[in-house]
TrEMBL record:
Cofactors, names only: Mg(2+); Mn(2+)
Hydrolase in keyword set: yes
Binding of a divalent metal cation, residues: D15, E16, D107
Entry superkingdom: Bacteria
Gene3D superfamilies, A to Z: Ribonuclease H-like superfamily/Ribonuclease H
Provenance organism: Flagellimonas lutimaris
GO biological process: DNA replication, removal of RNA primer; mismatch repair
Compartment(s) where it occurs, according to its Swiss-Prot or TrEMBL record: Cytoplasm
Keyword Nucleotidyltransferase: no
The protein's name: Ribonuclease HII
Residue ranges annotated for the RNase H type-2 domain, each copy included: 9-198
Length: 198
């Protein structure tokens, strides 16, 4: 059973999706849930089926005190690296919370401090605390929706299915068709590559 709070009643949970992808944005969500919020289905988004994530999203949005989702796109990822882009996406999501939280809980073991708000990093936090699990579901569903949209432009990479992750099929498509404007040029796109022809 997920816990409702770590420390503060108006704390925000934050998490990201898409860090290990070859294409598309890294997407972060931040959410403040009411203290009495309970949901028996809610869990780390990776433990949930796509159907359950899709069902949960409107429930979370409706019940949240405040929530925000932010994409950081491939050009910015290439410029500042994926770790910094993940922190930036989380910060931008927190920026749009109204009201701002008094405390932030973050999934994982690293975070760049947000100005004037204390935080705690919690390893596997998306399986422990409701607000981090909720953020993981929002980040994942919004990112998946975006990847399905750009799939229409470049169907040969099958982003509708692989969501930009480095599947065998995705790598084969890169070999055959090269890179698109949505690919992260700073990532090692193919195992044998040394440099990119761009």
């Amino acid at each position: 059973m997920l816990k409702s709070c770590y420390q503060s009643v108006d704390e925000a949970g934050t998490d990201e999706a898409g860090r290990g992808c070859l294409a598309g944005p890294v997407t972060a969500a931040a959410i403040i849930l009411p203290q009495n919020f309970r949901n028996s289905v809610l869990n780390d988004s990776k433990q949930l089926s796509e159907t359950k994530r899709t069902l949960l999203r409107p429930i979370l949005e409706k019940n949240a005190v405040s929530f925000s989702v932010c994409h950081v796109f491939q050009d910015e990822i290439d410029e500042i690296n994926i770790l910094n882009a993940s922190f930036l996406a989380m910060h931008r999501a927190i920026n749009h919370l109204e009201p701002l939280p008094s405390f932030i809980i973050v999934d994982g073991n690293r975070f760049k401090p947000y100005p004037n708000i204390e935080h705690e990093c919690i390893v596997k936090g998306d399986g422990k605390y409701m607000s981090i699990a909720a953020a993981s579901v929002l980040a994942k569903t919004y990112r998946d929706e975006y990847m399905e949209k750009i799939h229409e432009e470049f169907p040969m990479y099958n982003w509708k299915q692989n969501k930009g992750y480095p599947t065998k099929e995705h790598r084969e498509a890169i070999k055959q068709f090269g890179l698109t404007k949505y690919h992260r040029k700073s990532f090692r796109q193919l195992p044998e590559q040394l440099t990119l022809d761009i």
